[in-house]
Amino acid sequence: MSQSNIMPGFRPTIGFTLIYLALIVLIPLSAMLLKTFQLSLDEYWAILTDPRVLASFRVSFGSALIAAAFSGIFGFIIAWTLVRYPFPGKKLFDALIDLPFALPTAVAGIVLAAIYEPKGWIGKLVMEAFGIQIAYKPLGIVFALIFIGLPFVVRTIEPVLQEFDKAMEEAAASLGATRLQTFVKVILPNILPAAITGFALAFARGVGEYGSVIFIAGNMPYVSEIVPLLIITKLEQYDYAGATAIGLTMLLISFLLLLSVNGLQWWVRRRSGQL
Amino acid sequence: MNTISPVLTVHSKPLTIGDADWVRYALVALTLTIIGVFLILPLATVLIEAFAKGWGAYASSLTHPDTLAAIKLTLLTAAITVPLTTVFGVSAAWAIARFEFRGKSLLITLIDLPFSVSPVIAGLIYVLIFGAQGWFGPWFSEHNFKVIFAVPGIVLATLFVTFPFVARELIPLMQEIGHEEEEAALSLGASGWQTFFKITLPNIKWGLLYGVLLCNARAMGEFGAVSVVSGHIRGLTNTLPLHIEVSYNEYDFVGAFASASLLAGLAVVTLVVKTFLEWKQKQDLKASRKAADSH
Amino acid sequence: MNFTKPSKQLLILIAALLISGTALAERTLLNVSYDPTRELYQDFNKEFIKYWKDKTGEDVEVQQSHGGGGKQTRAVIDGLEADVLTLALSYDIDQIAEKARLLPKDWQSRLPHNSLPYTSTIVFLVRKGNPKGIKDWGDLVKEGVSVITPNPKTSGGARYNYLAAWAYAEKTLGSKEAAKDFVKKLYKNVPVLDSGARGSTTTFIQRGQGDVLIAWENEAFLAINDNENGKDQFEIIVPPTSILAETPVAVVDKIVKKNGTQDLAEAYLKYLYSPVGQKIAAKHYYRPSEPEQADQADLKRFPKLELFTVADKFGGWAKAQKEHFDDGGTFDQIYAP
User: Among 3.90.1570.10, 3.40.190.10, 2.30.33.40, 3.40.640.10, what is the CATH number of C18-116+247-273?
Assistant: First the structure.
């Protein structure tokens, strides 16, 4: 606490931060909480355990999980290549990684549907080669979420790889470790926390994603209907309590996820600080 | 880590700590494939569709009054949202990176929260508060002030979704830079504001700009949240992303992708500027570290 | 003082003039409508603005908001200030009357023909040459036929589609149980459920999904005549029986009173019933309620088929909604695994 003696501006900045946080985020979110409280616990439970709602949670969380896993693997490969290997146009490709951050989700949705539909560029290839349809199937959701999640993983792993001390690899190699052993025993454990963070961020974002998924999902109840769509559907039937009950549950899960991600980062920082 | 590890000097040949050539080529090829399929192809599709009927159709759909109105509204929304989010981000980063207090981890999580809240929920919460059936809706309606289905609602929803963008960028950066320089300035008698403008701001400017840039891209591109609170009135409450959906639904595919190309163009410009900023920031950090080392 | 009173009156007069002055110059009407009426009202608004200018000398503006029926209804209930509603089904306007109390419950009796300036029906759009041989509702449940229709929970048009199929099955198969089985089979053949009619049309036309699109008659015509190569790619199949889609219009009393647009809003809807309005409706493939006002050439395009109403077969929208589309209704049941 020594710096707080001399450093000015704690009160105004924390004050403004808290007030702004309350106005823009907390009070509006609490509206949802209060709306849900209009339901009795039994009603709330009945809404959540409705088979169609459960199915949509399975679809949303399942596809977000698979997509985040793929983003994790692809993201690791991309980050590794971008950090370690020189190749022409590297800077350009590196810059492109952030495209999903910057491209509006609605545009992404329309474009992804156009590419992966059975008659689209890639959809057709995959259809003819493997007989697998991507768009309008749960697989379409996974593809859209990989698009959304990829930059999160790359951007969390990249800096760690850059900072990674090659001397450790050299030491392992000089002690006779094979490349694979070095990778598994030395590199992977150091990258893993960042990879998990990226994975969790991609997952958290993917669960709530709406704009890019809706065009490609097919939106079939029990099969490819995602939670945000169900919230919209409930809204359009003027079932606000039902919509907020589902929304609140999603929010709680997101919050817990983020809390654990931040906890993980804190843990990693402390651990690396001690090393 | 400036010391060269001794193993290297012992071997006559430099030890290969890199990967075999085939691994390199395979991984580079895989990376390019993934980036190509998942990122470049969508971007290319936008441009191909936008120019499907030539330059003339492209230009005329962009100068349509409804498109222009959508562009204007999008710019207005960004013009209100970005400064507010920036001021908040700087203030939050100052409080969090420069002071220790209880519940800091919780505060950081709360700041991050809007980032993983489904955009649909982000719109819904403002409807619950300001909608005609909501808490304050009737009061605002009596006083003839429209929030939902008007510009204020769109701005609020955008404020929500862009909330963490600047703060997220600045907090780790300011933690990394440390506060020695600021303390030195303060102990030499500089005021708080002087310290901020002369010491802190120059140190964080590139990171700050980067955050502002991403915030701007999101503010201009948000779809889900804005869609819930917009009302979709042509030429009035349609932002560019909503206008894209409207055009698309009117079978005006060239128009839809022409508007999309604007946003995609914005994305590309954002990425280029961002890459430059990152490079610049690295240079600055290096320079300041060198300066610190030489003292 | 003596002149207090008149001066006060003067002030009020000036104020009123100022207010009405600005209001006169800037009066706008917001028409909240459903998905497929975009082209119709683009045309009609131009004509109405001209008509109003000629009649009163006032420049007005008409704003349009389009979207899936459910979304539009919710928006109005939540405070989207629509002066006039031109929606897909009376149930949506009933909801606005009931939940937001913006207009009286008997709104439908205020304009001619049950507030229906035009109606429509549901037909099939198939790929050119009708490769799957679709002729009637019964063909939609055949194996290997892929059907595109939107989600009846969010789309008004989709509810007509659903009810039309149901009524056909109940009549030909004889029981409600059989009808439920029929729609269950039908929706098994649906690969994509879009949230609105336009989304489904795009999925069918642009994305190339499905063998049959169950569509609004006007959407089907539009797809053929207003799309490039539409005539070479698709054709319309008219089933022997279908549902009469009653697409009502209404002035929103509370909003027009607040906005001072009552006269304008009423004139706007009345103009829909005028020869000009009826002609435009027919031109955009809506069936005019007073066909003698429309062009005979346009009328000839409408195929003849036997039409039944929601009131006849389902006892009105409130009942149909509750039985079929509310949570736990037949639509939810047919999807339960």
Answer: 3.40.190.10
pLDDT tens for residues C203-216? 898 888 899 999 99
Question: Chain C residues with CB inside 8 Å of B141's CB?
Answer: 79
Cβ atoms B164, B115 nearer than 8 A: yes
Residue C219, helix vs strand vs coil? helix
Buried b (16+ CB within 10 A) or exposed e, C175-207: eeeebbebbbbbbebbbbbbbbbbbbbbbbbbb
Highest-pLDDT range among A66-70, A170-174, B127-131, B139-143: A66-70
Q: How far apart are the first and last CA of chain B?
A: 19
Q: How many residues does chain A have?
A: 275
Average of per-residue pLDDT values in chain A = 86
Token output for B89: 């981000």
Query: Are A26 and A131 in the same domain?
Result: no
Domain ranges in chain C are 18-116+247-273, 121-245+305-335
pLDDT bin (cut points 50, 70, 90) of residue B3 is: very low
Q: What share of chain C has pLDDT > 90, as a percent?
A: 75
Q: What is the ipTM of this complex?
A: 0.82
Q: What are the start-end ranges of the E strands in C211-325? A: 212-216, 234-237, 241-246, 249-251, 287-288, 306-308
Residues of C in contact with B248 (CB under 8 A): 202
Q: What is the pLDDT of residue A2?
A: 41
Q: What is the pLDDT of residue B294?
A: 67
CATH number, domain of A193, equals: 1.10.3720.10
Residues forming a β-bridge with C243? C308
Instruction: Flag whether residue B226 sits within 8 Å of chain A, measured between CB atoms.
Output: no
User: Which CATH number fits the domain C121-245+305-335, given the four candidates 3.40.190.10, 3.40.800.10, 3.40.50.2000, 3.40.630.10?
Assistant: 3.40.190.10
Q: Does any CB of chain A come closer than 8 Å to the CB of residue C153?
A: yes
What pLDDT is recorded for position B5?
38
User: What token pair was written down for A89?
Assistant: 């146009």
User: What is the least distance, in Å, from the CA of C21 to any CA of chain A?
Assistant: 38
The answer to whether C29 touches C60, Cβ cutoff 8 Å, is yes
pLDDT at C18: 41
Structure-token pair, residue B118: 């489904």
Identity at A72, one-letter amino acid code: G
Report pLDDT digits (tens) over B33-54: 999 888 889 889 888 988 988 8
Task: Mention every residue, 6+ apart, whose C-beta is less than 8 A from residue C219.
Answer: C36, C125, C157, C197, C198, C201
Residue A124 has pLDDT above 70, yes or no: yes
Which of B258, C71, B106 minimizes the C-alpha distance to A233?
A: C71
Count Cβ atoms below 10 Å from residue C235 Cβ, excluding itself. Answer: 16
pLDDT for the residue C243 = 96
Beta strands in chain C (DSSP E): 28-33, 61-65, 84-86, 118-127, 147-148, 212-216, 234-237, 241-246, 249-251, 287-288, 306-308
Percent of chain B with pLDDT strictly greater than 90 = 25
Which residue in chain A has the smallest CA separation from C335? A221
Contact C104, C253 (CB under 8 A): yes
User: Nearest CA to CA, how far is A20 from chain C (Å)?
Assistant: 26
pLDDT of residue A268: 67
